[in-house]
Amino acid sequence: MGPGPSDVNPRVLAAMARPTIGHLDPEFITMMDEVKAMLKAVLKTNNELTMPVSAPGSAGMEACFVNLVEPGDKVIVCQNGVFGGRMRENVERFGGIAIMVEDEWGTAIDLAKVEAAFAANPDAKILAFVHAETSTGVRSDAQALCKIAQANNALSIVDAVTSMGGIELDVDGWGIDALYSGTQKCLSCPPGISPVTFSAKAVEVVKARKSKVPSWFLDTNLVMGYWGGSGKRAYHHTAPVNALYALHESLVMLLEEGLENAWARHNLHHQALKAGLEAMGLELLVDEADRLPQLNSVKIPEGVDDAALRSALLDNYSLEIGAGLGALAGKVWRIGLMGAGCTRRNVMLCLDALENTMRAQGVQVNAGAADAAAKVYQG
Amino acid sequence: MGPGPSDVNPRVLAAMARPTIGHLDPEFITMMDEVKAMLKAVLKTNNELTMPVSAPGSAGMEACFVNLVEPGDKVIVCQNGVFGGRMRENVERFGGIAIMVEDEWGTAIDLAKVEAAFAANPDAKILAFVHAETSTGVRSDAQALCKIAQANNALSIVDAVTSMGGIELDVDGWGIDALYSGTQKCLSCPPGISPVTFSAKAVEVVKARKSKVPSWFLDTNLVMGYWGGSGKRAYHHTAPVNALYALHESLVMLLEEGLENAWARHNLHHQALKAGLEAMGLELLVDEADRLPQLNSVKIPEGVDDAALRSALLDNYSLEIGAGLGALAGKVWRIGLMGAGCTRRNVMLCLDALENTMRAQGVQVNAGAADAAAKVYQG
């Protein structure tokens, strides 16, 4: 129940352990087509350039920036947590100019500030932001942000690492131009793969580059020879065969459940967890309207020894919860309810473990957490 | 029995299917230390910067070039197959100047040409070459090439994707400065991870860069915060937890067998395969002195329908062999004897399958292949 990797369903682990076959084997090519089709369904897009990058989410981020940013390009980057800062690093390392729009950690991106940044920089080429900030548990309004980008004739790059599969995400409906995600959050697949998608407009921008993409491994022009279209596949790199078996199975499971049902499940268990935490006297960091159900930032109460508590949860309950990052280190816990880990069993375990461990540290905790959570489940 | 991914031992697949735990979990950190120690043993190096890049070999290649090449740097690149060409792409995409030393595909790198390239370019900063060319089955003299680099005050970058675990490789003894490999060849681990190592001299060069590394994901300065030294690990990216379980198990198995024993096993089965192929009347592409035991390029005889034969092997024997690449497409097969796939059983299967399938195509094939191979095993 940390910020990811989340628990992996045994079906996905079993798929991953199937015998490795060749990355150009006809059976594998068929599976690649299925992975692409399922990624499109989960991301709600018809983008032809939709595929899993053969590396973790950070490489998916880099795939978006390295292909779309050329030296001198202005990119408006929203930062309201750790990952906006990483976006800035990407922009600058590829020769772009990052125009930062900063919001306090734990709050959503302020649309008015983004409008103002475009007003001051009408030549900005790209707007980049994080849909679901894993470092704080905040959801920003991706649809509204993409609309602002479109109104200003800019492309949008969206970090959907933690949102995909956990909350609503609609690539074509919202007009997202480039998006990267991760397998180890709400898809509940082992980490190591990053689904990405590029709109036709974004593909045109990549094709019209004045300079070569400063990466051979992530150049979409090359990778699409292997993942693109139908028919003959050209060798680019050796795909991580078993990791893709796992991704395939996790997408099958998500579509069996149904996207909307998965989003509803994340919300239900979040409501139960929240009710239990509040019954104990704990507070959530993020305003209710902007909360992610899959990542709950909880303020650490007075008198708690943070590191000792997290160690005790791991040792006594085999339960991982996340520490605060950056400005929030020592101030919050980050409790994940992601994918296969988003269950009633985990909610009740977490409430019980927190209650008992805080009491063992001599901290005053109100009773009634389990009852409050159970009431949510009774509806 | 293609050019990789090779067959994966069930022990490694079972390790990969263990439950996913956190990438900062104390148990996982302990395993990371073991992976590093075993990589050092297998590569015969004390380099502190020795770690698995969280992506396939192509990303390991990019990790070496993106960190060491700055705009304007001259890099002498040896090309005697596909992967030298990919090195050139890397050099040029990072602003370097590639000075190409070309040898015919299927032959080893000519040391005299490399000496001449340094004589003409005494300011070359790096010599880059492929130790074991997977596209042709050629071994070049890595020790002699590194000596030439040292004599010219240049760093060496070595592609050891197919050599690691299959033939002698001695990073410290040969004075290699930067090396990348892959998991899916003679380590017989699923594809997706690339072991790399950088000498102290190479690390100094990275630290003294005038420009930032044009990749956030592959910047060794950052990655080492997670993989480096002992003690506290800083979050960089989410490591591919299950893929590292698999790498750990494959390294345990290789060290159980013993490096020298593994090299001898690769040579033994290569000799048996060769004896069988020659008994059939087939010819190997590469001169005996330069042959890789783990990748056998076999000239396709007159009258054989290459694609139909490879399909028939796959359909009738569940046997994959590799097609020729680039200039060798349609002219050779590439038969892998790598790691867990390098067994007597596979040698005999391959000889039998080739003999019968060629005969079914109406091609004249001499009898006695199985006997000739068995004779090698009898010693």
TrEMBL record, chains A, B:
One of its GO terms (biological process) is glycine biosynthetic process, by transamination of glyoxylate. The keyword Lyase does not apply. Its cofactor is pyridoxal 5'-phosphate. The modification N6-(pyridoxal phosphate)lysine is found at residue 185. Keywords: Aminotransferase, Pyridoxal phosphate, Transferase. Gene3D superfamilies: Aspartate Aminotransferase, domain 1, Type I PLP-dependent aspartate aminotransferase-like (Major domain). Residues 20-324 form the Aminotransferase class V domain. Signal peptide: none annotated. One of its GO terms (molecular function) is alanine-glyoxylate transaminase activity. Substrate binds at residue 334. The keyword Transferase applies. Belongs to the class-V pyridoxal-phosphate-dependent aminotransferase family. This is Alanine--glyoxylate aminotransferase. It comes from Oceanospirillum multiglobuliferum.
